[in-house]
């Protein structure tokens, strides 16, 4: 049944006490988004940044920040309560297509209530592991499709070949359908709880997910951690946790993260991944920032030798205006024990240049 066998409104509301960390806004609806596109060259990497025996040159969307279009809003409904909602779609700027052909609002689709006690939201939402990565990732969640904290630690691309939790996909579990999430603040601390319904007629636990998380923010310091358990349709379990800390040193910020998850892939086999990340952001001039991070991923699978990879990613960002920046990105990946696939190069390097506009 997971760590919360019957996590519902009674359990969640019973934990409510203080304010929410969901962003405050005026009553009404806000249209927002990110439009990001760039040219990328990869050596030993294909157009999707997987291992390759050749090179690739592509025009990609969302190299710096995932391109998206969203709608969010709130309404004061009296008694200290506000109704809130968020609908958000991923966009491939290079083709004009939606990032997910099966879900109109693949990135967010939820509605809820917010008060002094916190916020309770229902719908498709990011997992608590994803929330931690958003708070403490050394790259600030840049380059989501290539960032090991997002792909491996937060399970956006878990490489497990099966659906764990109601993700609506077999390739990752960064967001879950049918989810209830509570977020509350207690001074400098925050508390999160989440449960996603599997909606399987034969079992309440199959394809479900439950988790808890906590955070701290004060001055130039922050920390966050979360644990989540996922089930597949056969009742096999994926258990994961992520934690990290960040600190300001003058105008620079340093972050360190660690994540681990273990999945039952069959009744007798399992896969475990461990992810370490360290890096941060330092301003070089008033308009120019350097953002860099190092990641190490180690994988253990039943009946296979340990493998994984080391990856360095760096961005040089120039702020053209308050909402527009140009960037150059460089990266290098060193695969271990054939993680990249048979016949492919043992190292991969990439370079990108693009522009991002937010609205």
From TrEMBL:
<dbReference type="GO" id="GO:0009279">
    <property type="term" value="C:cell outer membrane"/>
</dbReference>
<keyword id="KW-0626">Porin</keyword>
<keyword id="KW-0998">Cell outer membrane</keyword>
<feature type="signal peptide">
    <location>
        <begin position="1"/>
        <end position="25"/>
    </location>
</feature>
<comment type="subunit">
    <text>Homotrimer.</text>
</comment>
<keyword id="KW-0472">Membrane</keyword>
<keyword id="KW-0732">Signal</keyword>
<keyword id="KW-0813">Transport</keyword>
<keyword id="KW-0406">Ion transport</keyword>
<dbReference type="Pfam" id="PF13609">
    <property type="entry name" value="Porin_4"/>
</dbReference>
<dbReference type="InterPro" id="IPR023614">
    <property type="entry name" value="Porin_dom_sf"/>
</dbReference>
<keyword id="KW-0812">Transmembrane</keyword>
<feature type="domain" description="Porin">
    <location>
        <begin position="15"/>
        <end position="336"/>
    </location>
</feature>
<dbReference type="GO" id="GO:0046930">
    <property type="term" value="C:pore complex"/>
</dbReference>
<dbReference type="GO" id="GO:0006811">
    <property type="term" value="P:monoatomic ion transport"/>
</dbReference>
<dbReference type="InterPro" id="IPR033900">
    <property type="entry name" value="Gram_neg_porin_domain"/>
</dbReference>
<dbReference type="InterPro" id="IPR050298">
    <property type="entry name" value="Gram-neg_bact_OMP"/>
</dbReference>
<keyword id="KW-1134">Transmembrane beta strand</keyword>
<protein>
    <submittedName>
        <fullName>Porin</fullName>
    </submittedName>
</protein>
<dbReference type="GO" id="GO:0015288">
    <property type="term" value="F:porin activity"/>
</dbReference>
<dbReference type="InterPro" id="IPR002299">
    <property type="entry name" value="Porin_Neis"/>
</dbReference>
């Amino acid at each position: 049944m997971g760590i919360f066998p019957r996590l519902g409104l009674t359990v969640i509301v019973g934990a409510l006490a203080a304010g929410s960390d969901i962003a405050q806004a005026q009553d009404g609806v806000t249209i927002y988004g990110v439009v990001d596109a760039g040219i990328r060259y990869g050596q030993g990497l294909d157009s999707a940044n997987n291992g390759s025996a050749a090179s690739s040159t592509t025009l990609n969307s969302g190299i710096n920040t995932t391109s998206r279009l969203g709608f969010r809003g709130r309404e004061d409904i009296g008694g200290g309560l506000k109704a809130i909602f968020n609908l958000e779609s991923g966009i491939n700027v290079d083709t004009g297509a939606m990032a997910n052909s099966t879900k109109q609002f693949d990135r967010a689709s939820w509605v809820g209530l917010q008060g002094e006690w916190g916020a309770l939201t229902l719908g498709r939402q990011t997992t608590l592991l994803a929330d931690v990565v958003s708070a403490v990732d050394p790259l600030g969640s840049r380059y989501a499709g290539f960032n090991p904290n997002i792909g491996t630690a937060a399970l956006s691309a878990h490489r497990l070949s099966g659906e764990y939790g109601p993700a609506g996909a077999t390739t990752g579990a960064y967001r879950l359908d049918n989810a209830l999430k509570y977020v509350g603040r207690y001074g400098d601390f925050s508390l999160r709880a989440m449960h996603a319904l599997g909606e399987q007629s034969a079992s309440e636990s199959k394809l479900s997910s439950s988790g808890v998380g906590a955070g701290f923010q004060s001055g130039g310091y922050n920390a966050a951690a979360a644990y989540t358990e996922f089930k597949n349709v056969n009742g096999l379990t994926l258990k994961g946790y992520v934690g990290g800390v960040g600190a300001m040193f003058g105008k620079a910020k340093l972050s360190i993260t660690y994540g681990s998850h273990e999945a039952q892939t069959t009744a007798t086999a399992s896969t475990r991944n461990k992810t370490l990340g360290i890096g941060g952001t330092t301003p070089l001039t008033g308009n120019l920032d350097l953002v860099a991070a190092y990641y190490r991923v180690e994988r253990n699978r039943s009946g296979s030798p340990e493998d994984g990879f080391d990856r360095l990613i760096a961005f040089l960002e120039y702020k053209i205006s308050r909402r527009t920046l140009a960037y150059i990105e460089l990266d290098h990946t060193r695969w271990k024990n054939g993680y990249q696939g048979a016949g492919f190069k043992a190292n991969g390097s990439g370079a990108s240049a693009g522009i991002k506009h937010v609205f």
